Amino acid sequence: MATPKVCGIETEYGILLSGADVDPITASSLIVSAYKDSSWAFASFDASHESPSRDARGVNLDDYLDPVIDSKMINTVLSNGARYYVDHAHPEYSSPECATIRDAVLFDVAGEFILRESMNKANERLPQGVRIDLYKNNSDGKGNSYGCHENYLVDRQLPFEKLAAFITTHFVTRQVFCGSGKVGHETPTGVVDQSGFQISQRADFFEELVGLETTMKRPIVNTRDEPHCDPQKYRRLHVIVGDANMSQFATYLKLGSTALVLSMIEDGMFPQHLLIAHPVHAIKQISRDVSMSEQVLMADGSRMTALAVQSELCSAVRAYVETSAYCGMTHDEAHDVLINWEQTLRDLASQPSSLAKKIDWIAKMQLVGGTKKRHSLSDSDSRLKAIDLMYHSLDPKASLAAKLKLSHMFDDKTIAQAAQQPPDTTRAFFRGRVVDKWFDHIVNANWDSIVFDVANRPLQKVYMNEPLKGTRELTESIINLSTSVEELLALLGQQDLPSSTL
Amino acid sequence: MGERVYKQHEQDRQGTTDTESELQPNEHDPIKTDLDLILDQIDEVLEENAEEFVKSYVQKGGQ
After folding, report:
1. CA nearest to A78, candidates A115, A128, A121
2. In this complex, is the C-beta atom of A386 within 8 Å of any C-beta atom belonging to chain B?
3. Who among A88, A149, A353 is closest to B25 (CB)?
4. Best residue in B39, B54, B55, B56 to probe A by mutation, most A CBs within 10 Å?
5. A460-463 sheet: strands from edge to edge
6. In this prediction, does ipTM exceed 0.85?
7. Which residue from A246, A330, A495, B3 has the fewest beta carbons nearer than 10 Å?
8. Domain locations along chain B
9. In CATH, which of 3.30.590, 2.60.270, 3.30.9, 3.30.160 is domain A7-408?
10. CATH 3.30.590 location in chain A
11. What is the per-residue pLDDT across A314-362, written as a single tens digit (0 to 9) for each?
Protein backbone atom coordinates (compact mmCIF):
# COMPACT_ATOMS: atom_id res chain seq x y z
CA MET A 1 0.00 0.00 0.00
CA ALA A 2 1.19 3.52 -0.80
CA THR A 3 2.99 5.55 1.85
CA PRO A 4 1.18 8.73 2.96
CA LYS A 5 2.56 11.41 0.67
CA VAL A 6 3.89 13.83 3.26
CA CYS A 7 5.51 16.56 1.19
CA GLY A 8 7.00 20.04 1.13
CA ILE A 9 8.89 22.52 -1.03
CA GLU A 10 12.26 24.20 -0.45
CA THR A 11 12.94 27.31 -2.51
CA GLU A 12 16.09 29.31 -3.10
CA TYR A 13 15.07 32.86 -3.96
CA GLY A 14 16.90 35.04 -6.46
CA ILE A 15 18.39 38.10 -4.77
CA LEU A 16 19.43 41.40 -6.32
CA LEU A 17 21.04 44.17 -4.30
CA SER A 18 21.22 47.51 -6.05
CA GLY A 19 22.97 50.73 -5.07
CA ALA A 20 25.95 49.15 -3.30
CA ASP A 21 28.59 46.55 -3.90
CA VAL A 22 27.63 43.72 -1.54
CA ASP A 23 28.15 40.01 -2.12
CA PRO A 24 25.00 37.83 -2.34
CA ILE A 25 25.82 35.83 0.81
CA THR A 26 25.86 39.02 2.88
CA ALA A 27 22.72 40.28 1.16
CA SER A 28 20.98 36.95 1.85
CA SER A 29 22.07 37.15 5.48
CA LEU A 30 20.52 40.61 5.70
CA ILE A 31 17.25 39.19 4.46
CA VAL A 32 17.07 36.25 6.87
CA SER A 33 18.32 38.25 9.85
CA ALA A 34 15.74 41.00 9.16
CA TYR A 35 13.07 38.40 9.83
CA LYS A 36 14.95 36.89 12.78
CA ASP A 37 15.25 40.27 14.44
CA SER A 38 11.54 40.92 14.20
CA SER A 39 9.14 39.95 16.95
CA TRP A 40 8.43 36.52 15.48
CA ALA A 41 9.67 33.44 17.29
CA PHE A 42 12.44 31.30 15.90
CA ALA A 43 15.06 28.80 17.05
CA SER A 44 18.41 27.70 15.64
CA PHE A 45 18.39 24.93 13.09
CA ASP A 46 20.92 22.14 13.63
CA ALA A 47 22.36 21.05 10.30
CA SER A 48 25.38 19.30 11.78
CA HIS A 49 23.91 15.83 11.30
CA GLU A 50 22.70 16.36 7.76
CA SER A 51 24.20 14.27 5.03
CA PRO A 52 23.36 15.76 1.64
CA SER A 53 26.12 13.61 0.16
CA ARG A 54 24.48 10.33 1.13
CA ASP A 55 23.46 8.61 -2.07
CA ALA A 56 20.31 6.51 -2.44
CA ARG A 57 22.41 4.09 -4.46
CA GLY A 58 24.59 3.33 -1.42
CA VAL A 59 27.63 5.67 -1.62
CA ASN A 60 28.45 8.49 0.81
CA LEU A 61 30.48 11.29 -0.72
CA ASP A 62 30.97 12.81 2.75
CA ASP A 63 33.89 10.41 2.94
CA TYR A 64 35.53 12.31 0.12
CA LEU A 65 34.22 15.86 0.22
CA ASP A 66 33.72 18.64 2.74
CA PRO A 67 30.12 19.03 3.92
CA VAL A 68 28.08 21.17 1.55
CA ILE A 69 26.21 23.02 4.26
CA ASP A 70 28.04 25.56 6.37
CA SER A 71 26.16 25.33 9.66
CA LYS A 72 27.66 28.62 10.80
CA MET A 73 25.48 30.49 8.33
CA ILE A 74 22.23 31.98 9.53
CA ASN A 75 19.94 29.05 10.01
CA THR A 76 16.61 29.13 11.79
CA VAL A 77 13.41 27.25 12.51
CA LEU A 78 10.25 29.36 12.42
CA SER A 79 7.07 29.09 14.45
CA ASN A 80 5.26 27.66 11.40
CA GLY A 81 7.67 24.73 11.45
CA ALA A 82 9.67 25.89 8.41
CA ARG A 83 13.43 26.24 8.06
CA TYR A 84 14.68 29.65 6.92
CA TYR A 85 18.35 30.15 6.14
CA VAL A 86 21.13 31.20 3.79
CA ASP A 87 22.18 28.48 1.43
CA HIS A 88 24.51 28.75 -1.54
CA ALA A 89 24.30 32.55 -1.68
CA HIS A 90 20.49 32.63 -1.66
CA PRO A 91 17.89 33.02 1.07
CA GLU A 92 16.10 29.69 1.24
CA TYR A 93 12.76 28.78 2.76
CA SER A 94 11.99 25.10 3.37
CA SER A 95 8.32 24.66 4.10
CA PRO A 96 7.21 22.49 6.99
CA GLU A 97 6.31 18.93 6.04
CA CYS A 98 2.62 18.72 5.12
CA ALA A 99 0.18 15.81 5.03
CA THR A 100 -2.08 17.27 2.36
CA ILE A 101 -1.33 18.82 -1.02
CA ARG A 102 -3.43 21.84 -0.11
CA ASP A 103 -1.34 22.47 3.01
CA ALA A 104 1.89 22.05 1.03
CA VAL A 105 0.77 24.78 -1.38
CA LEU A 106 -0.34 27.03 1.48
CA PHE A 107 2.99 26.74 3.30
CA ASP A 108 4.90 27.38 0.08
CA VAL A 109 2.88 30.57 -0.39
CA ALA A 110 3.51 31.42 3.29
CA GLY A 111 7.19 31.30 2.33
CA GLU A 112 6.60 34.04 -0.23
CA PHE A 113 4.93 36.08 2.52
CA ILE A 114 7.90 35.57 4.86
CA LEU A 115 10.46 36.49 2.20
CA ARG A 116 8.43 39.59 1.29
CA GLU A 117 8.25 40.65 4.94
CA SER A 118 11.99 40.08 5.25
CA MET A 119 12.66 42.12 2.12
CA ASN A 120 10.53 45.00 3.39
CA LYS A 121 12.19 44.99 6.81
CA ALA A 122 15.70 44.74 5.35
CA ASN A 123 15.00 47.62 2.97
CA GLU A 124 13.78 49.80 5.86
CA ARG A 125 17.25 49.45 7.39
CA LEU A 126 19.32 50.00 4.29
CA PRO A 127 20.63 53.45 3.42
CA GLN A 128 18.75 55.52 0.88
CA GLY A 129 19.49 54.41 -2.65
CA VAL A 130 20.31 50.85 -1.62
CA ARG A 131 17.70 48.11 -1.81
CA ILE A 132 17.28 44.38 -2.06
CA ASP A 133 14.79 42.71 -4.37
CA LEU A 134 13.80 39.06 -4.26
CA TYR A 135 12.59 36.83 -7.06
CA LYS A 136 10.88 33.45 -6.93
CA ASN A 137 12.43 31.99 -10.06
CA ASN A 138 15.20 29.58 -11.06
CA SER A 139 17.50 31.19 -13.59
CA ASP A 140 19.38 34.42 -14.20
CA GLY A 141 19.44 33.82 -17.95
CA LYS A 142 23.22 33.68 -17.88
CA GLY A 143 23.79 30.01 -17.19
CA ASN A 144 23.18 30.14 -13.42
CA SER A 145 20.30 28.26 -11.83
CA TYR A 146 18.97 27.87 -8.29
CA GLY A 147 16.48 25.38 -7.07
CA CYS A 148 12.90 24.84 -6.07
CA HIS A 149 13.03 21.34 -4.62
CA GLU A 150 10.06 19.19 -3.77
CA ASN A 151 10.14 16.39 -1.22
CA TYR A 152 7.85 13.37 -0.99
CA LEU A 153 7.75 10.58 1.58
CA VAL A 154 8.03 7.19 -0.12
CA ASP A 155 8.34 3.60 0.98
CA ARG A 156 11.93 2.51 1.70
CA GLN A 157 11.07 -0.96 0.39
CA LEU A 158 10.52 0.34 -3.14
CA PRO A 159 13.76 -0.24 -5.09
CA PHE A 160 15.23 3.16 -5.91
CA GLU A 161 16.16 2.12 -9.45
CA LYS A 162 12.53 1.31 -10.21
CA LEU A 163 11.32 4.54 -8.64
CA ALA A 164 13.84 6.56 -10.69
CA ALA A 165 13.06 4.82 -13.96
CA PHE A 166 9.30 5.35 -13.71
CA ILE A 167 9.05 8.82 -12.17
CA THR A 168 11.32 10.18 -14.93
CA THR A 169 8.41 10.08 -17.39
CA HIS A 170 6.42 12.46 -15.22
CA PHE A 171 9.39 14.72 -14.45
CA VAL A 172 10.11 15.18 -18.16
CA THR A 173 6.53 15.85 -19.29
CA ARG A 174 4.77 17.56 -16.35
CA GLN A 175 6.37 20.90 -17.32
CA VAL A 176 3.47 21.49 -19.75
CA PHE A 177 1.42 22.55 -16.72
CA CYS A 178 4.05 23.43 -14.09
CA GLY A 179 6.73 25.12 -16.18
CA SER A 180 7.22 28.77 -15.28
CA GLY A 181 8.35 29.89 -18.72
CA LYS A 182 11.59 31.52 -19.78
CA VAL A 183 12.77 34.03 -22.36
CA GLY A 184 15.84 32.64 -24.10
CA HIS A 185 18.00 29.56 -23.80
CA GLU A 186 21.16 28.89 -21.85
CA THR A 187 23.55 26.18 -20.81
CA PRO A 188 25.18 25.55 -17.42
CA THR A 189 28.46 26.64 -19.01
CA GLY A 190 27.02 30.07 -19.70
CA VAL A 191 26.24 29.88 -23.40
CA VAL A 192 23.31 32.24 -23.67
CA ASP A 193 20.80 33.05 -26.38
CA GLN A 194 18.25 35.65 -25.28
CA SER A 195 15.82 34.97 -28.11
CA GLY A 196 12.82 32.69 -28.11
CA PHE A 197 10.58 31.44 -25.34
CA GLN A 198 10.50 28.07 -23.60
CA ILE A 199 8.16 26.34 -21.19
CA SER A 200 10.57 25.59 -18.32
CA GLN A 201 13.04 27.66 -16.30
CA ARG A 202 15.12 24.64 -15.36
CA ALA A 203 15.13 22.26 -18.35
CA ASP A 204 18.31 23.81 -19.81
CA PHE A 205 20.26 22.74 -16.73
CA PHE A 206 19.71 18.98 -16.70
CA GLU A 207 22.66 16.98 -17.96
CA GLU A 208 22.26 13.56 -16.33
CA LEU A 209 19.43 11.10 -15.81
CA VAL A 210 20.19 10.02 -12.23
CA GLY A 211 22.76 11.39 -9.79
CA LEU A 212 23.66 13.01 -6.51
CA GLU A 213 24.74 16.45 -7.68
CA THR A 214 22.52 19.51 -7.25
CA THR A 215 24.81 22.38 -8.28
CA MET A 216 26.48 20.93 -11.39
CA LYS A 217 25.71 18.17 -13.87
CA ARG A 218 22.19 18.24 -12.46
CA PRO A 219 20.27 14.95 -12.74
CA ILE A 220 16.56 14.62 -13.57
CA VAL A 221 16.29 12.22 -10.61
CA ASN A 222 18.34 13.25 -7.59
CA THR A 223 19.66 10.46 -5.37
CA ARG A 224 20.20 12.45 -2.16
CA ASP A 225 19.24 10.06 0.61
CA GLU A 226 18.32 12.08 3.68
CA PRO A 227 14.99 10.74 4.96
CA HIS A 228 14.87 13.11 7.98
CA CYS A 229 12.74 10.40 9.64
CA ASP A 230 12.84 6.64 10.26
CA PRO A 231 15.32 5.44 7.61
CA GLN A 232 14.18 1.85 7.91
CA LYS A 233 10.64 2.71 6.82
CA TYR A 234 10.94 5.76 4.63
CA ARG A 235 12.76 7.44 1.83
CA ARG A 236 12.38 11.16 1.12
CA LEU A 237 12.44 11.65 -2.62
CA HIS A 238 14.34 14.91 -3.19
CA VAL A 239 13.10 16.39 -6.46
CA ILE A 240 15.30 19.05 -8.05
CA VAL A 241 13.80 19.12 -11.54
CA GLY A 242 10.90 21.51 -10.95
CA ASP A 243 10.39 25.23 -11.54
CA ALA A 244 9.35 27.66 -8.80
CA ASN A 245 5.74 28.59 -9.50
CA MET A 246 4.03 31.91 -8.92
CA SER A 247 0.67 30.26 -9.65
CA GLN A 248 -0.75 28.46 -6.63
CA PHE A 249 -2.78 26.32 -9.00
CA ALA A 250 0.37 25.19 -10.83
CA THR A 251 2.04 24.32 -7.51
CA TYR A 252 -1.06 22.34 -6.53
CA LEU A 253 -1.06 20.35 -9.77
CA LYS A 254 2.71 19.82 -9.63
CA LEU A 255 2.60 18.40 -6.11
CA GLY A 256 -0.71 16.55 -6.47
CA SER A 257 0.10 14.83 -9.74
CA THR A 258 3.61 13.88 -8.62
CA ALA A 259 2.37 12.49 -5.30
CA LEU A 260 -0.22 10.33 -7.07
CA VAL A 261 2.24 9.04 -9.68
CA LEU A 262 4.64 8.10 -6.86
CA SER A 263 1.88 6.22 -5.04
CA MET A 264 0.98 4.43 -8.27
CA ILE A 265 4.64 3.36 -8.64
CA GLU A 266 4.73 2.15 -5.02
CA ASP A 267 1.65 0.02 -5.67
CA GLY A 268 3.13 -1.49 -8.82
CA MET A 269 0.61 0.08 -11.22
CA PHE A 270 2.81 2.36 -13.32
CA PRO A 271 2.06 1.84 -17.05
CA GLN A 272 5.46 0.57 -18.14
CA HIS A 273 5.04 1.38 -21.83
CA LEU A 274 5.31 5.08 -20.88
CA LEU A 275 9.09 5.18 -20.66
CA ILE A 276 10.95 7.88 -22.58
CA ALA A 277 13.97 6.80 -24.64
CA HIS A 278 16.23 9.81 -24.03
CA PRO A 279 14.92 11.82 -21.06
CA VAL A 280 17.79 14.35 -20.87
CA HIS A 281 17.20 15.27 -24.51
CA ALA A 282 13.41 15.08 -24.23
CA ILE A 283 13.13 17.45 -21.26
CA LYS A 284 14.76 20.21 -23.34
CA GLN A 285 12.90 19.25 -26.51
CA ILE A 286 9.55 19.56 -24.72
CA SER A 287 10.54 22.80 -22.98
CA ARG A 288 11.45 24.44 -26.30
CA ASP A 289 8.21 23.47 -28.04
CA VAL A 290 5.57 25.95 -26.92
CA SER A 291 3.20 24.55 -29.55
CA MET A 292 3.27 21.27 -27.56
CA SER A 293 3.09 19.39 -30.86
CA GLU A 294 6.53 17.78 -31.09
CA GLN A 295 6.76 14.09 -30.41
CA VAL A 296 9.46 12.55 -28.24
CA LEU A 297 10.91 9.12 -28.80
CA MET A 298 9.62 6.52 -26.37
CA ALA A 299 11.64 3.51 -25.20
CA ASP A 300 9.39 1.18 -27.22
CA GLY A 301 10.22 3.05 -30.43
CA SER A 302 6.91 4.91 -30.69
CA ARG A 303 6.64 8.71 -30.62
CA MET A 304 4.34 10.72 -28.38
CA THR A 305 3.75 14.38 -27.53
CA ALA A 306 4.23 15.45 -23.92
CA LEU A 307 0.47 16.04 -23.73
CA ALA A 308 -0.24 12.50 -24.96
CA VAL A 309 2.15 11.07 -22.36
CA GLN A 310 0.49 13.16 -19.68
CA SER A 311 -2.99 12.11 -20.78
CA GLU A 312 -2.08 8.43 -20.55
CA LEU A 313 -0.34 8.94 -17.23
CA CYS A 314 -3.34 10.83 -15.86
CA SER A 315 -5.73 8.09 -17.07
CA ALA A 316 -3.56 5.44 -15.42
CA VAL A 317 -3.64 7.42 -12.16
CA ARG A 318 -7.43 7.71 -12.44
CA ALA A 319 -7.71 3.93 -12.80
CA TYR A 320 -5.26 3.42 -9.95
CA VAL A 321 -7.11 5.77 -7.58
CA GLU A 322 -10.49 4.21 -8.36
CA THR A 323 -9.29 0.68 -7.68
CA SER A 324 -7.13 1.35 -4.62
CA ALA A 325 -8.18 1.41 -1.00
CA TYR A 326 -5.55 4.06 -0.33
CA CYS A 327 -3.45 6.19 -2.72
CA GLY A 328 -1.15 8.14 -0.39
CA MET A 329 -3.79 10.81 0.26
CA THR A 330 -7.53 10.89 0.91
CA HIS A 331 -9.72 9.92 -2.01
CA ASP A 332 -11.37 13.33 -1.85
CA GLU A 333 -8.05 15.06 -2.37
CA ALA A 334 -7.00 12.59 -5.07
CA HIS A 335 -10.22 13.21 -6.96
CA ASP A 336 -9.79 16.95 -6.73
CA VAL A 337 -6.24 16.67 -8.10
CA LEU A 338 -7.45 14.39 -10.89
CA ILE A 339 -10.34 16.61 -11.95
CA ASN A 340 -8.04 19.62 -12.20
CA TRP A 341 -5.25 17.65 -13.89
CA GLU A 342 -7.63 16.22 -16.50
CA GLN A 343 -9.26 19.57 -17.21
CA THR A 344 -5.89 21.30 -17.52
CA LEU A 345 -4.65 18.73 -20.04
CA ARG A 346 -7.84 19.18 -22.07
CA ASP A 347 -7.42 22.97 -22.01
CA LEU A 348 -3.76 22.73 -22.98
CA ALA A 349 -4.77 20.66 -25.99
CA SER A 350 -7.69 22.81 -27.11
CA GLN A 351 -7.26 26.39 -25.90
CA PRO A 352 -4.07 27.07 -23.97
CA SER A 353 -4.81 30.81 -23.66
CA SER A 354 -7.74 29.94 -21.37
CA LEU A 355 -5.10 28.92 -18.80
CA ALA A 356 -3.45 32.35 -18.63
CA LYS A 357 -4.60 32.80 -15.02
CA LYS A 358 -3.47 29.36 -13.92
CA ILE A 359 -0.35 28.23 -15.75
CA ASP A 360 2.77 30.34 -15.32
CA TRP A 361 4.43 29.79 -18.69
CA ILE A 362 1.25 30.67 -20.55
CA ALA A 363 0.67 33.78 -18.41
CA LYS A 364 4.25 34.92 -18.94
CA MET A 365 4.22 34.13 -22.65
CA GLN A 366 1.16 36.33 -23.14
CA LEU A 367 2.96 39.25 -21.51
CA VAL A 368 6.14 38.70 -23.49
CA GLY A 369 4.26 38.11 -26.76
CA GLY A 370 1.92 41.05 -26.16
CA THR A 371 4.75 43.51 -25.48
CA LYS A 372 6.78 42.23 -28.38
CA LYS A 373 3.87 42.64 -30.77
CA ARG A 374 2.79 46.02 -29.40
CA HIS A 375 6.21 47.60 -29.94
CA SER A 376 7.45 45.39 -32.77
CA LEU A 377 10.45 44.36 -30.68
CA SER A 378 13.16 42.04 -31.87
CA ASP A 379 13.43 38.59 -30.29
CA SER A 380 16.48 39.56 -28.28
CA ASP A 381 15.22 42.92 -26.95
CA SER A 382 16.17 43.26 -23.26
CA ARG A 383 12.64 44.36 -22.39
CA LEU A 384 11.40 40.84 -23.04
CA LYS A 385 13.92 39.31 -20.63
CA ALA A 386 13.06 42.04 -18.13
CA ILE A 387 9.41 40.94 -18.28
CA ASP A 388 10.53 37.36 -17.64
CA LEU A 389 12.39 38.41 -14.47
CA MET A 390 9.75 40.89 -13.25
CA TYR A 391 7.08 38.21 -13.47
CA HIS A 392 8.72 36.57 -10.43
CA SER A 393 9.38 39.66 -8.28
CA LEU A 394 8.20 39.51 -4.66
CA ASP A 395 7.63 43.28 -4.68
CA PRO A 396 3.88 43.67 -5.32
CA LYS A 397 4.54 46.93 -7.17
CA ALA A 398 6.91 45.24 -9.62
CA SER A 399 5.58 41.67 -9.76
CA LEU A 400 3.88 40.97 -13.06
CA ALA A 401 2.42 37.74 -11.65
CA ALA A 402 0.75 39.88 -8.95
CA LYS A 403 -0.55 42.34 -11.54
CA LEU A 404 -2.07 39.47 -13.52
CA LYS A 405 -4.11 38.44 -10.46
CA LEU A 406 -3.55 34.74 -11.06
CA SER A 407 -6.27 32.50 -9.69
CA HIS A 408 -5.50 31.79 -6.06
CA MET A 409 -6.43 29.17 -3.50
CA PHE A 410 -5.93 31.16 -0.29
CA ASP A 411 -6.90 34.58 1.02
CA ASP A 412 -4.37 36.98 2.57
CA LYS A 413 -5.46 36.21 6.13
CA THR A 414 -4.93 32.47 5.70
CA ILE A 415 -1.49 33.04 4.21
CA ALA A 416 -0.42 35.43 6.97
CA GLN A 417 -1.59 32.90 9.55
CA ALA A 418 0.40 30.11 7.87
CA ALA A 419 3.50 32.27 8.09
CA GLN A 420 3.25 32.03 11.87
CA GLN A 421 1.34 28.86 12.70
CA PRO A 422 2.30 25.31 11.69
CA PRO A 423 0.18 22.77 9.79
CA ASP A 424 -2.01 20.65 12.09
CA THR A 425 -1.44 17.19 10.74
CA THR A 426 2.32 16.50 10.84
CA ARG A 427 5.15 16.70 13.40
CA ALA A 428 5.67 20.29 12.16
CA PHE A 429 2.83 21.17 14.53
CA PHE A 430 4.89 20.18 17.58
CA ARG A 431 8.05 21.80 16.19
CA GLY A 432 6.34 25.08 15.40
CA ARG A 433 4.38 25.32 18.61
CA VAL A 434 7.32 24.63 20.93
CA VAL A 435 9.47 27.09 18.97
CA ASP A 436 6.71 29.64 19.49
CA LYS A 437 6.25 28.95 23.19
CA TRP A 438 9.75 28.02 24.40
CA PHE A 439 12.18 29.39 21.83
CA ASP A 440 14.48 30.61 24.60
CA HIS A 441 14.80 27.04 25.92
CA ILE A 442 15.56 25.43 22.57
CA VAL A 443 19.24 24.88 21.84
CA ASN A 444 18.49 23.83 18.31
CA ALA A 445 15.92 22.03 16.25
CA ASN A 446 16.04 19.81 13.22
CA TRP A 447 13.46 18.12 11.00
CA ASP A 448 13.47 15.05 13.23
CA SER A 449 14.56 16.29 16.66
CA ILE A 450 14.52 19.21 19.09
CA VAL A 451 17.07 19.81 21.86
CA PHE A 452 15.82 21.58 24.99
CA ASP A 453 17.94 23.28 27.63
CA VAL A 454 16.35 22.50 30.98
CA ALA A 455 17.64 23.97 34.24
CA ASN A 456 19.93 21.69 36.28
CA ARG A 457 19.67 18.84 33.82
CA PRO A 458 21.61 17.69 30.78
CA LEU A 459 20.30 18.84 27.42
CA GLN A 460 17.12 16.98 26.58
CA LYS A 461 16.63 15.74 23.03
CA VAL A 462 13.16 14.89 21.74
CA TYR A 463 13.14 12.66 18.68
CA MET A 464 10.47 12.95 16.00
CA ASN A 465 11.05 10.04 13.66
CA GLU A 466 7.47 9.79 12.46
CA PRO A 467 6.33 12.66 10.22
CA LEU A 468 2.67 11.93 10.96
CA LYS A 469 3.07 12.12 14.74
CA GLY A 470 3.54 15.28 16.75
CA THR A 471 0.26 16.53 15.31
CA ARG A 472 -2.24 18.96 16.82
CA GLU A 473 -4.42 16.02 17.78
CA LEU A 474 -1.59 14.26 19.61
CA THR A 475 0.29 17.15 21.22
CA GLU A 476 -1.78 20.34 21.46
CA SER A 477 -3.29 19.62 24.86
CA ILE A 478 0.13 18.69 26.26
CA ILE A 479 1.69 21.88 24.93
CA ASN A 480 -1.18 24.00 26.23
CA LEU A 481 -1.18 22.38 29.67
CA SER A 482 2.56 22.80 30.17
CA THR A 483 3.69 25.98 31.85
CA SER A 484 7.38 25.10 31.52
CA VAL A 485 9.67 22.96 29.40
CA GLU A 486 10.09 20.66 32.42
CA GLU A 487 6.34 20.09 32.50
CA LEU A 488 6.23 19.58 28.75
CA LEU A 489 8.93 16.92 28.88
CA ALA A 490 7.30 15.25 31.86
CA LEU A 491 3.93 15.14 30.13
CA LEU A 492 5.51 13.77 27.00
CA GLY A 493 6.98 11.02 29.11
CA GLN A 494 10.42 12.11 28.03
CA GLN A 495 12.25 11.81 31.35
CA ASP A 496 14.35 8.98 29.99
CA LEU A 497 15.54 10.90 26.98
CA PRO A 498 17.02 10.45 24.49
CA SER A 499 15.58 6.98 24.01
CA SER A 500 11.97 8.05 23.57
CA THR A 501 10.34 8.90 20.30
CA LEU A 502 7.56 11.39 19.84
CA MET B 1 -23.65 24.96 -39.26
CA GLY B 2 -23.19 27.96 -41.57
CA GLU B 3 -22.82 30.32 -38.62
CA ARG B 4 -20.17 28.14 -36.98
CA VAL B 5 -18.16 28.01 -40.17
CA TYR B 6 -18.40 31.80 -40.48
CA LYS B 7 -17.15 32.30 -36.94
CA GLN B 8 -14.25 29.99 -37.58
CA HIS B 9 -13.44 31.91 -40.72
CA GLU B 10 -13.56 35.21 -38.86
CA GLN B 11 -11.16 33.86 -36.28
CA ASP B 12 -8.77 32.66 -38.96
CA ARG B 13 -8.91 36.04 -40.65
CA GLN B 14 -7.67 37.73 -37.48
CA GLY B 15 -4.45 35.85 -38.08
CA THR B 16 -2.93 33.17 -35.93
CA THR B 17 0.20 32.32 -37.81
CA ASP B 18 2.68 31.68 -35.05
CA THR B 19 2.39 29.96 -31.72
CA GLU B 20 2.82 33.07 -29.61
CA SER B 21 -0.11 34.78 -31.28
CA GLU B 22 -2.15 31.62 -30.93
CA LEU B 23 -1.67 32.01 -27.23
CA GLN B 24 -2.87 35.62 -27.28
CA PRO B 25 -6.51 35.82 -26.22
CA ASN B 26 -9.05 36.56 -28.94
CA GLU B 27 -11.32 39.62 -28.95
CA HIS B 28 -14.08 37.91 -27.03
CA ASP B 29 -11.83 36.64 -24.29
CA PRO B 30 -12.76 38.37 -21.01
CA ILE B 31 -9.14 38.62 -19.92
CA LYS B 32 -8.10 40.67 -22.93
CA THR B 33 -8.93 43.93 -21.20
CA ASP B 34 -6.92 42.83 -18.20
CA LEU B 35 -4.00 41.90 -20.43
CA ASP B 36 -4.06 45.26 -22.20
CA LEU B 37 -4.08 47.07 -18.87
CA ILE B 38 -1.13 45.03 -17.69
CA LEU B 39 0.74 45.66 -20.92
CA ASP B 40 0.13 49.37 -20.31
CA GLN B 41 1.59 49.00 -16.82
CA ILE B 42 4.55 47.07 -18.21
CA ASP B 43 5.18 49.93 -20.61
CA GLU B 44 5.19 52.34 -17.66
CA VAL B 45 7.58 50.34 -15.49
CA LEU B 46 9.68 48.86 -18.25
CA GLU B 47 11.91 51.80 -17.98
CA GLU B 48 14.65 52.63 -20.38
CA ASN B 49 17.12 50.78 -18.16
CA ALA B 50 15.66 47.33 -18.87
CA GLU B 51 18.99 46.41 -20.40
CA GLU B 52 20.88 47.46 -17.26
CA PHE B 53 18.42 45.55 -15.06
CA VAL B 54 18.77 42.36 -17.08
CA LYS B 55 22.54 42.73 -17.13
CA SER B 56 22.76 43.23 -13.37
CA TYR B 57 20.64 40.19 -12.58
CA VAL B 58 23.39 37.64 -11.88
CA GLN B 59 22.78 34.71 -9.51
CA LYS B 60 25.79 32.55 -8.82
CA GLY B 61 26.04 29.67 -6.39
CA GLY B 62 22.65 27.99 -6.52
CA GLN B 63 21.41 24.43 -6.44
Report:
1. A115
2. yes
3. A353
4. B54
5. A442-445, A449-452, A460-463
6. yes
7. B3
8. 25-55
9. 3.30.590
10. 7-408
11. 999 999 999 999 999 999 999 999 999 999 999 999 999 999 999 999 9
